Amino acid sequence: MDIAIDLKDHIRSIPDFPKPGILFYDISTLLAHPGAWRATIERLAEAVRPQQPDLLVGIESRGFLVAAPLAYALGCGFAMVRKKNKLPGKTVRFTYDLEYGSDTIEIQEDAISPGQRVVVVDDLIATGGTTEAAINLISQRGGTVVGAACIIELNFLNGRDRIPVPVTAMISYDS
Predict the structure, then answer these.
(1) CB of 115 closer than 8 Å to CB of 86
(2) 134 domain-assigned
(3) What's the CA gap between 62 and 75, in Å, rounded?
(4) Does some domain include residue 22?
(5) Marked catalytic residue, from 12, 43, 46, 62
(6) Is residue 90 in some structural domain?
(7) How many domains is the chain built from?
(8) pTM of the model
(9) What is the DSSP letter of 54?
């Protein structure tokens, strides 16, 4: 593992995206840099391995980019949580409240086996709402969620407070 790589050097900040007043932290530049991307996956694997997951569940869509290679590195399975009507076959839904309105996520009905140890993975945790919803959905299916992991955590939004399992973040921003 290359400890000399500062992952923050490979995150691009884009002001006023997707709307005015939002500073978007873009992982595209991290993904494009082979050394930084490898270091990210290696560091996440080292941090998540002690949780002994059987399955990583990636949250649509950038969470897929993180969870799939991480599952490969850990030698465990990978499943997807997506917005409703995006997964084939029989699915199970979970609807959760947003600041204004609600949203619904789904997982394939047979994606989780009862008692399976699961880590939920996304590229970024902001308010924690989607991660919390994914944990609830997985728990309803009989999975045991043992952790959550991300590349970026926006500390100033206090998302970690909503997540009832240990959270691993490679990078954190305070504003």
Answers:
(1) no
(2) yes
(3) 20
(4) no
(5) 62
(6) yes
(7) 1
(8) 0.95
(9) S
Residue with tokens 């959550």: 148
Question: Is the residue at 14 inside a domain?
Answer: no
Identify the CATH number of the domain in which residue 113 sits. 3.40.50.2020
Where do we find the tokens 């499943």?
79
Out of 38, 43, 99, 109, pick the active-site residue: 99
Single-letter amino acid, residue 33: H
DSSP at 78: E
Here the tokens at position 53 are 């997951």
Residue span of the structural domain in which 95 resides: 51-173
- Tens digit of each residue's pLDDT, the chain (175 residues): 566 899 999 999 999 999 999 999 999 999 999 999 999 999 999 999 999 999 999 999 999 999 999 999 999 999 999 999 999 999 999 999 877 789 999 999 999 999 999 999 999 999 999 999 999 999 999 999 999 999 999 999 999 999 999 999 999 999 8
153 is catalytic: no
